[in-house]
Design goal:
This protein is an alpha+beta fold and 107 residues long. It is built from two helices and five strands. The chain has one domain.
Length: 107
């Protein structure tokens, strides 16, 4: 009898692509900006740009994102994983390669 559904241990968790979620992107960008240091990372934030490589919400895991913040002094890279936001130290080439690989795996 099928009273209890068996979970397929090899089944991938459901995920949604949130790259068009403006509110979520704004919250992540604000959190990233709060981690930047005035004087070292930026002089002014007037022309600061945020570019998201990818942004997924994964079932039972949370957010999975990689993005960069470009200020008048530097480009800072960030990863959101679950409930954590971390600043990363990586070159632009590795950022681009990672974004391409993740998007290929999630398409």
């Amino acid at each position: 009898m099928g009273f209890f559904k068996r979970k397929d241990k090899n089944a991938r968790p459901r995920e949604t692509n949130e790259i068009e979620n403006k509110e979520l992107k704004e919250r992540l960008a604000d959190a990233a900006l709060s981690l930047l240091a005035q004087g070292k990372d930026f002089k002014e934030l007037n022309h600061t740009k945020v570019k998201f490589g990818y942004l997924f919400n994964v079932e039972n895991h949370g957010l999975e994102s990689l993005f960069k913040v470009t200020t008048d002094k530097t480009t800072a890279y960030f990863q959101a994983k679950g409930e954590e936001l971390m600043r990363l130290d990586l070159p632009e080439g590795l950022y681009q390669a990672t974004v391409e690989q993740v998007l290929a795996l999630h398409s």
